[in-house]
Structures are given as structure tokens and as C-alpha cells.
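tool=predict chain=A
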Amino acid sequence: MTQNLSSRRYLMCRPTHFAVDYAINPWMDPSAPVDADLAIRQWSTLRQVYLDLGHTVDEIEPLPGLPDMVFAANGATVVDGRALAVQFLNPERADEGPAYASWFERAGFEVHQPKHVNEGEGDILLAGDLLLAGTGFRTAHAAHAQVQEVFGRPVVTLQLVDPRFYHLDTALCVLDPQTVAYLPEAFSPGSQAVLRRLFPDAIIARPADAEVLGLNAVSDGRHVVLPAQATGFAAALTERGYEPIGVDMSELRKAGGGPKCCTLEVRDR
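tool=predict ok
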């Protein structure tokens, strides 16, 4: 395991307007009650964990009528000071894209507008020099070519096949530049073979951990912030020398989100 203890910069959005008013993934049930105050408390705990670890947290202003804007990972992909803005598949989230793009423009980033549907770090994850790019449910395969052109890094397409794991960041977690954890069953046979070839030392997650969105975790190379309910994954991380930090994100999970969904890594030049 390679330890990278450098401070990270994250962008988050307080779930002021969080609700489950529609269903655009299998986790969402508009008929189930949602405790917005509990969601804010869980989100605030996550934010404080990052600050306690020495990371920087920027915040984007939450906008009324956008209950999923809390899931900042979907707001952009940011590498080397360049931001690729997003285009959502579902109209319910469409207005989040311009809001995040405007934030990055104001913050001085080089912003590239999307040519195809892409949902940011939900489906595009930096692993060393590679960009792992999911498709199958949200991000269009055609978007992967733009990802490569914008960032000038090799892109590896991974086909998602289980609708519960509709974004790559629900089925795979980058732990450090050489190591990932993933749920094989979430990927097509060919993509499973690619992952075995690229990451022979990967942590293979158990379905029980993935089913509480345990892989929707954030790693700084040493500490891994993950849903508290993913106890098997936490044990596997400890065995490999990482330091798991469990946080309860159960209220936000009602919309299909965990720590990573709430966290966009902002990579400056």
C-alpha cells in the first residue's frame, strides 16, 4: 500500500433542500419518510471528519428545488486544474450542472462544457495516471472520449450491469494510485477481466458491504471514510493497512448516496 498523506481539497453541498421527491435509481422511494434534519447532521459529521483529517472543504450554495445537489461528486470531474462540467441523464437534476460549472468558473478553473451525458466523479475516477470511466446507466460511453481529450490521460471504460450500482463510485473505490476495491458482480465479464489485469491486488468487496453503499467511500491514501454499516469492508481495509473511518450516511442512502457521492475532489494544478 502506498500512503499519500497530502491534504486533499473537497467540494461539498449542504443538504438544505434534501428530499426524495422522485425515483431515478433503485434506492429512491418517494413514499418513504425522509428526515431532512438528520441528513444535515450526517452530512455535517462527514464534513467535520475531513476537516479533522486536515483536508480543505469548500462549499457550494444549495439551490431550492434541487434535492440531489448534495451529491457533489456528480457536479464535475476535476483533474490538474481543469474541470469537465456535467450533463445529467435525468431532467430532475439538469439544473445542477450549470450551478457547479459556475462555481468552478468563479474559482478560476478551466471549465470544459460537456458534449455528452456525463455525471462527473460518479462515473469518472482518477486512479494513478488512469481515469476509470463507468457506463451502462448514466454516463454515456461517448463521453469517455471527451474525458480523455480534456485531461490527456488514458481512459479505461468499465461497463456497469447492476442497476443498484448505477454509478461507478457505488461499485468501485480508489484507495491509492495502485489499489482499488470493487464488487465484481457490478461489472460485465469483460470489465471484470480488465480490473483483474489492472489491479491484481484489489480488495474484492462482499455484496453485503456494497449493498449498504460501502464502496461509496473516500480515501486519502491512508484514511478511508466509508459508511459505518460496511463492517466487512472496514475489516478488509484494516487488514491491508488502511485506517477506516465509519460515518452513518443512512438518511442520504435513501437517495442512493454515501460519503463519496457527497464529496467532489478538487484537484488543482
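The first helix runs from residue 36 to 52. The helical segments are 36-52, 96-106, 143-151, 189-198, 207-210, 231-239, 250-253.
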